[in-house]
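Before relying on records like the one below, remember that each one covers exactly one chain. Contacts with other chains, cofactors or solvent are not represented anywhere in the record.
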Amino acid sequence: MEPPILPSLKLPPQVIPSVPDLPRPNLDMPTANLPTYKPMLVPSGALRGPAGTEEDEEDNEPAAEVQRVNVPFTDITIPIPQEEIMVTAATTAFISVAATLTATSLFKQCVKVFKPIIMQLAKRIQKKLNGNPKAEEPSA
């Protein structure tokens, strides 16, 4: 059995022209005019507050001792913050996660309760605006 012969078009052979030789562009390097200024040197010891004001006394408390932990099997030491800082950071993180999870749960419950009400209101408003008396759908 011979394969079926389908109608087709015989197109002439395509002639693709060669690429023209173009000269290579000669571009100069870009330049920019940078702003300049004359630096003003002010010695910090010469600065004084206005007359008649009290100067804040500097707190000369010694820096807190920073604890360091050696990482086993390496020559790396890592500084550890003070206990008060760690407790504050952990408490803040715990409270923010708990508040986020609670708000998400509350929002989902509100959507579940209010979605049918809003949908029914939208249907009633749309019915009044369109003026099409359709048979009312039974409410859920």
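The radius of gyration is 40 Å.
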